[in-house]
Each structure stands twice: as C-alpha cells, then as structure tokens.
Amino acid sequence: MYKIVFMRHGESTWNLENRFTGWVDVDLTAKGVAEAKAAGRALKEAGFTFDLTYTSVLKRAIRTLWLALDEMDAMYLPVKNDWRLNERHYGALQGLDKGETAAKFGDEQVLVWRRSYDTPPPALEKNDDRTSFGDPRYASLDESQIPLTECLKDTVARVMPAWNDEIAPAIRAGKNILISAHGNSLRAIIKMLDNISDADIVGLNIPNGQPLVYELDADLKPIKHYYLGDQAAIAAAMAAVANQGKAK
Ligand SMILES: O=C(O)[C@@H](CO)OP(=O)(O)O
Asked: Is 87 a catalytic site residue?
C-alpha cells in the first residue's frame, strides 16, 4: 500500500479578496501562513515522513510547502517545482472579483466557469498584460504551452504527464511524497485518481491548507482518502469555497 499527501496552499491574498487568481503569483495572507504551519504540525503529529516533495511555480503553493516542511523539521527534503502543477489558468477572469462577476453574469454562469469540466472561462487576448508570456519561470516552454485560459479538462491534460512520468514512478519506487498545489490542479489529479465523472467533479471543492491523504494500492488505485484535522471545520471550509462564486 502506498500513501501520498496532497495539500492546497493556505489562504492567499486573492482568496481573501475573493478574486479569480489562476496563474497570478499572489502570496499567502497571515491566515494562510498559519494554515500552512498547522498543516505541517498535523502531518508531524500524525507521524508522516516524506522523501520527496512537489509543488508548482507559484509562491502561494511554494511557501505553503516551505512552511509545512519547516514545522516538520524537514526543510532538507528535495522540492521539485513543476509548472504543470500550477493552478488552472483563469483566462480573462484573472483579477476579477468572484461575487461581482456572479452579480454581472449570474451564479450559474460563474459555476460553469469555476467548476465545469470542459467550458473554459473567456480567454485572455495575446497582447493582454496579464498573459504569462515572457515570464522567466516559463522560459523553457513553447508559447503554445502557455495558456490564455483553461477548463479543468485542459488542466488535466497538462497535469497528467507530470503524474504519469514523474510522480507515479516515484511512488512506485517507494518514495513518500507530499504535493503542495492548488484547488483546481488538485481537482484534476483527484478526478483522475478517483475516476470522478465530468458531472460529479462540479461538486468537488478543496479547502486551503488541509492535508489530504490518499492510500493507493499496487496499481495506484485509491483504497481510501481522508483529510487530517477537524472534520467539521474542513466540511465548513469546503462549503465556503463552493460559495465564493455566488452573488451576495
Ligand atoms: O481563483 C482561483 O484561481 C481558484 C482557486 O483559488 O478559485 P476557484 O475556487 O474559484 O476555482
């Protein structure tokens, strides 16, 4: 039996402001820092140890990982930064207020943009200042790999090669792995692992800064999964994420 732990970053400044974030590189709030440290303590207290860690190239996930590792006294662990674990690109919605967007376009439309499997948000224009073209962290990528928007299906298509080519072989080699990533890049991995239908994935919301443990069989099929920590608080945090896209 294998185990892997996933963790969404702690609260970011744009989570607090309720803005669509995607590939924008915002940092953690003080609450996000506290969540990341608490996640590290929870992992340590539950006896988890790791050999290898993965995160995105966005600082909210990277800092969450660093803070959690510090709490575990495990900052020596290798950290692999992979752009393919980035948040889903939110296209022209990046920077907009989620509640205001719902008031303008309706809760239903915003739910489709936030959670549907194959309907992307409106795309950025190529000459929009908000594109990631020219950002040095993506210098090794072909321009065609840098999204202007993404639906979850697109995110699955970029995350899965990272899973299949890097992470799954490391799990099979017996490495204990911690992944610090994002709400929608984790939804992409979980959809694939649990074989969640395109319809049911709409209802899956991931809370900030809560370690999510997956136990996997020899074929890397999930046996069970559970969040560490206070289950009522986690359920409330998931419901709060679901409600972020509603007009007040
Ligand atoms: O804004 C985003 O990039 C994501 C995660 O914070 O939000 P949502 O939950 O609306 O997909």
From this structure: yes
Q: What is the pLDDT along the chain (248 residues), one digit of tens a residue?
A: 999 999 999 999 999 999 999 999 999 999 999 999 999 999 999 999 999 999 999 999 999 999 999 999 999 999 999 999 999 999 999 999 999 999 999 999 999 999 999 999 999 999 999 999 999 999 999 999 999 999 999 999 999 999 999 999 999 999 999 999 999 999 999 999 999 999 999 999 999 999 999 999 999 999 999 999 899 999 999 999 999 999 97
10 lines ligand 1 (CB under 6 A): no
Q: Is 208 in the pocket of ligand 1 (CB under 6 A)?
A: no
114 in contact with ligand 1, CB cutoff 6 A: yes
3-state secondary structure of 101: helix
Ligand 1 atom nearest to CA at 244: 10
Residue 233's nearest CA partner among 214, 203, 207, 212 is: 207
Residue owning the nearest CA to atom 2 of ligand 1: 21
Instruction: Sort strands 177-181 and 52-55 into parallel, antiparallel or unpaired.
Output: parallel
CATH topology of domain 2-43+57-150+176-213+229-243: Rossmann fold (3.40.50)
Q: Where are the domains of the chain?
A: 2-43+57-150+176-213+229-243
